[in-house]
Amino acid sequence: MVNVTVNGKAVAVPEHTTILEAAKAAGVDIPHLCYLKHLNEIGACRVCCVEIEGERNLVPSCNNPVFEGMVIRTNTPRVRRTRKINVELILSQHDCHCATCLRSGNCHLQNIANDLGILENPYPRDLVTGARAQWPKDFPLYRDTNKCIKCMRCIQVCDKVQGVNVWDLSGTGSRTRVDVSHNRRIKESDCVLCGQCITHCPTGALRERSDTEKAFAALADPNLVTVVQIAPAVRAAWGESLGLPPEKATVNRMAAVLRALGFDYVFDTSFSADLTIMEEATEFLHRFKAGETQFLPMFTSCCPGWVRYLKGHYPDMTTRLSSAKSPQQMFGAVAKNYLAAKIGVRPDQVYSVSIMPCVAKKAECDLPTMHTEAGRDVDLALTTRELVRMIRAEHLHPEMMAEEAFDSILGPYSGAGVIFGATGGVMEAALRSAYHMVNGQNPPPEAFRAVRGNADGAPGWTEAEFDLGGATVKTAVVSGLGNTRQLIEAVRAGRVHYDFVEVMACPGGCAGGGGQPHSPDDEELARSRGQVLYSIDKGSALRFSHENPAIQALYREALGAPGSETAEAWLHTDHLGWKMPSQQE
Asked: How many CB atoms lie within 10 A of CB 580?
């Protein structure tokens, strides 16, 4: 252990601990903007600088380790003065119209500026103008270059964690700025829309395209029947930005909130996750028995960020994807082809909205292949953050609302459907039902828990082997696209072999999705959110997708059987029916 003193308080910390971490251990928070542990420790913002006894210059606390006997002062007049100047210089190149910024109230820069008491800026404004400040407003991801503080978090996350390399620095000196790499426009890049750059941005420079006004317009249209679905991972995060304790932030209270917003029918996407399992498990067993996974695996297809990645980086492997639509799209198709008839309206009167933990879902529902004869499956996809903004816009108080059940027609869901929101959940749910399809009986619900993935974003992936009817099935689960690239390269090189692989673009799965609330403390919350979903599954009376009575009724009344002609028309898609930018060159 290393003994140091922070603002007069003695503390012992492990060797190699940074000054920033040592101060935190002593109960002292040092403000910072660019720092992300193990990812962006470059000391670029200089906001975290502190005084070290015996040192002439101020020292960045985020990337300097402590030494024995170090005396640290974090808030001397010199430190405060320097910190204030650094923030004022950042603000001189920042659009400070906070009232029109979606991050107002949850912005690191705004918080630090307020804490420093900055009421006016002595430095002249120096904002980007002209073509460099423009961005396509129809793209699902939106970037405001004048809110960027050049912290480079987005570059590091995209490069080191996701390996997609969308962002880079351009220009030199004071004109250095973050932009799309290789001098491209965003629509020319193979951005997968995972949204990890958004969730790690400390300001409002990156956000999803805001579609809340479209949602309010649909709710106000008397000619539309609004149907909303809630993704499994949303229930584990929606209350965070609203200050709701976990016992108040329940999915049934969210159902009450959505009805208060004006939605006519409220459902849980966990229902269509069960439906996805029926189709995907059936497809996997068919491919496995036919020997189609002898050399290359079948990949899950419910994550649109992953589908975009595969098509953009390994287009020759597109046919290895399951043809099953995602639960979002399946629900939309069922809503317009089945629910509409049940409630006595035309399909074109149904306006289908989804609440997703994901930015890529906005692009997915716009794909030319995501429709049936009843029209496009999903009309509008909103992120968890957008739902929170709608709640605030209507001045609703969820903590004061009574819980309400989902609407009954497509309402029931299993615990297997809920765990779709955690890494490994899709694989575990699929194997539970595949086991039943092969053996005619259910396995123990926890039989396949070995596939539960690493929710911390650590390098590597999870692999497991299982016996299905006397045959050995080799599986792998991976989250984060950097890890995914390593897995695919290993598969292509013949170093590993799997029959069935689950991929989630975001580290930790949908629980850590790019549409989830920002953490004010830069915490990675995928693991804790995922544990909420696994706890719900463990406490569910219904834990197998094939036992969902509403799913059974849907097949009996409309679809026939998994993989039937109707099921193919409603619930499956052609992944070759559209192209990523790199495929159009």
From this structure: 20
Give yes or no for a contact between 393 and 386, defined as CB atoms under 8 angstroms apart: no
pTM: 0.96
Kind and range of the H or E run holding 226: strand 225-230
* Helix, coil or strand: residue 38: coil
DSSP string across 319-366: GGB--BPPHHHHHHHHIIIIIHHHHT--GGGEEEEEEES-SHHHHHTT
Question: 3-state DSSP call for residue 50?
Answer: strand
d(CA 275, CA 273): 5
Q: How far apart are CA 115 and CA 133, in angstroms?
A: 29
**pLDDT tens-place values along the chain, 585 residues long:** 999 999 999 999 999 999 999 999 999 999 999 999 889 989 889 999 999 999 999 999 999 999 999 999 999 999 999 999 999 999 999 999 999 999 999 999 999 999 999 999 999 999 999 988 999 999 999 999 999 999 999 999 999 999 999 999 998 887 889 999 999 999 999 999 999 999 999 999 999 999 999 999 999 999 999 999 999 999 999 999 999 998 999 999 999 999 999 999 999 999 999 999 999 999 999 999 999 999 999 999 999 999 999 999 999 999 999 999 999 999 999 999 999 999 999 999 999 999 999 999 999 999 999 999 999 999 999 999 999 999 999 999 999 999 999 999 899 999 999 999 999 999 999 999 999 999 999 999 999 999 998 888 789 999 999 999 999 999 999 999 999 999 999 999 999 999 999 999 999 999 999 999 999 989 999 999 999 999 999 999 999 999 999 999 999 999 999 999 999 999 999 999 999 998 886
- Return the residue matching tokens 């599986």: 475
477-509: b or e for each residue (b if 16 or more CB lie within 10 Å)? bbbbbbbbbbbbeebeeeeeebbbbbbbbbbbb
Token pair listed for 344: 């006595």
Alpha-carbon distance values, 200 to 25, 35, 42, 515, 520 (Å): 23, 10, 15, 11, 10
> Please, is 564 exposed, middle or buried when counting C-beta atoms within 10 Å of its C-beta (0-12, 13-18, 19+)?
middle
53-60 long-range contacts (CB < 8 A, ≥24 apart) are 58/82, 59/19
Whether residue 36 contacts residue 522, with contact meaning beta carbons closer than 8 Å, is answered with yes
- Cα dihedral 474→479→481→482 (10° resolution): -90
Distance, CA of 303 to CA of 291 (rounded, Å) = 25
